[in-house]
Specification:
It holds the Pfam family GldC-like. The chain is of the alpha+beta class and 112 residues long. 36% of the residues lie in helices and 32% in strands. It has 2 domains: 55 residues, no CATH class; 49 residues. It is globular and about 45 Å long. It starts with 9 loop residues before the first strand and ends in a 6-residue tail after the last helix.
Length: 112
């Protein structure tokens, strides 16, 4: 199988004098996204040689704490769903979603 197309996702991070993120944006031409602002980014990369995950978590200094909690909750739910699709392990996917519900309950994120 040969690569037929390359796609890029770009992040632009504006830093203050202490190299703390003040503004962030991202672009993904294939997804129709061009310089879209964001307050937080989480990236995980699997290093298959070291069998380890490399991570980059950034957020702007004006990211509200309540939005950060919601961002983490939504990331947990997404990870549970992706895990189940990737591994076909419905039982663990459900367990991860149960934890996500518990997380949301403890942070009072579930409204209504």
């Amino acid at each position: 199988m040969s690569v037929k197309h390359h796609s890029e996702i770009n992040f632009k991070i504006g830093l203050d004098e202490n190299k703390v993120p003040e503004e962030m944006s991202w672009s993904a031409k294939d997804g129709g996204i061009d310089n879209e602002p964001s307050k937080a980014i989480m990236i995980s990369v699997w290093d298959h040689k070291q069998k380890d995950t490399l991570r980059m978590d950034l957020w702007t200094k004006d990211m509200p704490v309540d939005e950060m909690k919601q961002f983490y909750h939504q990331t947990l739910v997404s990870m549970a769903n992706n895990f189940e699709r990737a591994t076909d392990d419905a039982k663990m996917g459900a367990t991860m979603r149960d934890f996500s519900d518990y997380f949301a309950e403890k942070l009072d994120l579930k409204k209504g």
